[in-house]
What we know:
Elements: H1 13-32, H2 38-45, H3 57-80, H4 82-101, H5 106-134, H6 137-151, H7 153-168, H8 172-192, H9 207-219, H10 221-251, H11 259-284, H12 286-310, H13 317-343, H14 350-374, H15 381-401
Amino acid sequence: xxxxxxxxxxxxxxxxxxxxxxxxxxxxxxxxxxxxxxxxxxxxxxxxxxxxxxxxxxxxxxxxxxxxxxxxxxxxxxxxxxxxxxxxxxxxxxxxxxxxxxxxxxxxxxxxxxxxxxxxxxxxxxxxxxxxxxxxxxxxxxxxxxxxxxxxxxxxxxxxxxxxxxxxxxxxxxxxxxxxxxxxxxxxxxxxxxxxxxxxxxxxxxxxxxxxxxxxxxxxxxxxxxxxxxxxxxxxxxxxxxxxxxxxxxxxxxxxxxxxxxxxxxxxxxxxxxxxxxxxxxxxxxxxxxxxxxxxxxxxxxxxxxxxxxxxxxxxxxxxxxxxxxxxxxxxxxxxxxxxxxxxxxxxxxxxxxxxxxxxxxxxxxxxxxxxxxxxxxxxxxxxxxxxxxxxxxxxxxxxxxxxxxxxx
Length: 409
């Protein structure tokens, strides 16, 4: 591959992609394995009736801690290096996972989930930063797409893992598995991944440095526009994750044990999109690929709204599932390219920029996701409307950012 020469010494291309994908995947594992356990958790903590939607905060609490913690890790990684900060995040995540496994009530569980997110942010931020340290432009988008192809296997199988654990154990066992996975991954990373921060890019930690990196993010029209669009699109994924168990497993379609299969099938579509992007982005162009997918997303989500209205919010599964999968297929084409475009002007401050943009996009996504998720009323209509309005707003932002030029190479 053309980017083979850019890899850090001491690690091969396949191991690099697999290791970074695993660092990113543990966050998905910490979310997706929870979904089949929503019913058991709700029963244990008495979340019924008007409080039934509160179980979604198992996801959104994690994302809240994940969002805010990113503000710290980037600056710390720009000064001390990438590896020590990853280790710090692993320690926080492991302690919080232990606390969640032993949580006596729902409030303590949510607090531990926030702290889990705080620890997980280090691995998520630093994985993106390490890629940005090493690659740029179309190469970065290709590498991220390959990483996403590996990463996407987690959403395909994670609900099945959670379901399998529930068959023999309680929902607490999911946290014990997460703890073991996190410790094994950290040992692999510390042993095999070289330090990727170049000495000339080390920056001291100071308020002035943080504000300077923020100013550079805000002053770049491309960075501000595409990071805002990325945050809004992230809300698409968060609203799906928050509502999927209630839509497929319990309240709308009643799939019960088949929920994990449905979730995995839709995740597989997202993986195919990442494969398509990795092979075509260099030929088609990063902007043309992303803009075409965005226009398709708006069209498909509009059709999803019409279908939902036609069937009073409960369309047949054989119609709803393909349209939903189509939306998330487009989402998976959009996200790596939007992220690469927003980061392109910021190589010299990759760590700090990843923190600011990571906080901005993930917190925005969590808030949009929680808003749409808490609107769940036993139908798919809130999700469909949320998708369509988000897509239209993102399209408007991209047009403004690009000066009314879309689909250009």
